[in-house]
C-alpha cells in the first residue's frame, strides 16, 4: 500500500504509515461509497454513449433528407 501523503510503501493493511506516521486506513464506508460512485459513473457513461449514438443517428437522418 502506498501512503497518499509521503508516497512511501507500507505493509498491506497497515493503519499507519511506517514512514510519516499518518493514518492511512480507509474506512469500509468510504470504500463502499467509492464503489457505488464508480458504478454510477459507468452507468452515466453508458447513458451518455447511447445519447451520443442517438444524436448521431438523428443528424444522419437529417442530412439524408
From TrEMBL:
What keywords tag this UniProt record?
Coiled coil
Residue ranges the record marks as coiled coil: 34-61
**What's the name of the protein?**
Zinc ribbon domain-containing protein
Q: Which organism is it from?
A: Bradyrhizobium diversitatis
Amino acid at each position: 500500500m502506498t501512503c497518499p501523503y509521503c508516497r512511501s510503501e507500507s505493509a498491506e493493511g497497515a493503519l499507519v504509515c511506517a514512514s510519516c506516521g499518518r493514518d492511512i486506513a480507509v474506512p469500509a464506508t468510504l470504500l463502499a461509497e467509492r464503489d457505488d460512485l464508480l458504478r454510477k459513473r459507468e452507468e452515466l457513461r453508458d447513458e451518455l454513449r447511447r445519447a451520443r449514438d442517438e444524436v448521431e443517428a438523428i443528424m444522419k437522418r437529417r442530412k439524408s433528407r
